[in-house]
Amino acid sequence: MRNLERVVFVGAHPDDFAGEIGLALLMRGKFEVHVVNLTHGERGCGEEKFRNGWTKATRTREEERVCEAVAATLHWLDEVDGEAYASRATCGKFAALLKELRPRAIITHWPMDQHLDHVMAYAATMKAVAIAGIAPEIYYYEQDRQTRGFLPAFWVDISPVEEEKEQIIGLYECQGGARCIAPNKRLAADFRGRNMHHRAAFAEAYATYPGTTQGTRCIFSELPAP
Question: Which domains occur in the chain, in start order?
Fold first, then answer.
C-alpha cells in the first residue's frame, strides 16, 4: 500500500466535522484523513447528562462511527465542552501529534465565531503548529450560523457524495443528525453550490491562511474538477 499524504480536520466538538464530510469523502484513496476533536461535546445534551457522563460517552461513540464511515483516524485533546482553552498542555499534546503525523494540510475553524470553543480550536491549532515547527497548508471551514465574516477561497463540488454525506451525518443521533444537522448542512451546501454559478448542485467552501500554500500546489487542486 502506497504512503499517502495526511490531512487533519480539527473541530471543537463531535459533529463540527459534519460540514466537511463531503471533502473527506472525496479524499478517500488520495489522502490519509485524521480528525482531531478539542472536546467530547460533553454539554451538548444538558448539564445533568454532562455530570453523569452520558453525553461524553454517547458523542464519543457517535464520532467513532462517523470516522469509521469516512475512513478517518480519530484523536481527542480532552478539553471540556464549554470550558475549552488552548492551554499549554493541550497545545503541547496537539503539537506532539502533528510532529508525528507531519500533515500536508490542516483544516480548522474560522477564527471569527460566536462559539468560544470554536475559537479555542482555531487558537490551539495555530499554537500547536508553531510548537511543532511544521509548515502545513492551513485552511478554514465555516460553522453555519455561528461563523462570522467567512471569506472562502475554494469551493468543492460535493454533489457526487452529498447523499452519502447526509447518511453519515445521521449518525450524530443525540444532536439530531438526520432531523436537524443534515438539513442545515444540505442548505449550506446548496448555497455554496450556487456560489459556483451552478457548476455544482452542492458544494463546501473553504478559506485559506495566507502564505501556507506553495505556489499553485494545494490540496484542492488535486480533487476531481467540478
Answer: 6-222 (3.40.50.10320)
